[in-house]
Amino acid sequence: MRSERPGWPATYTAGSLLLTPGSPTAAFESRHRPHLEIPLGGEVHDPEPEAWYDQDWAAKAYQPPGDGPAVHLNVHSRYLGIVLLALRKI
Questions:
Q1: In this structure, are residues 9 and 2 in contact, taking their beta carbons and an 8 Å threshold?
Q2: How far apart are CA 50 and CA 48, in angstroms?
Q3: Rounded mean pLDDT of the chain?
Q4: Which of 50, 58, 68, 83 could form a disulfide with 64 if both were Cys (CB 3.0 to 4.6 A apart)?
């Protein structure tokens, strides 16, 4: 993941996206970055083409509801569908 929040690097950071049923937020945990809460219910967009590393890894931009900064996710394609459903709260 990479975030457009101030202080976050412009490159992807490896970590875990934590989703809890019924929670209004997801959390991103990384050894190298602070804990990041991500509000659910936003929109998913295709990011810049160079963010697609290969056929098995999909990169998507997630814009949380409101004016919060976007986050960019790089997820293995087998998990992409469920991750996008969870972020949209469908």
A1: yes
A2: 6
A3: 84
A4: 68
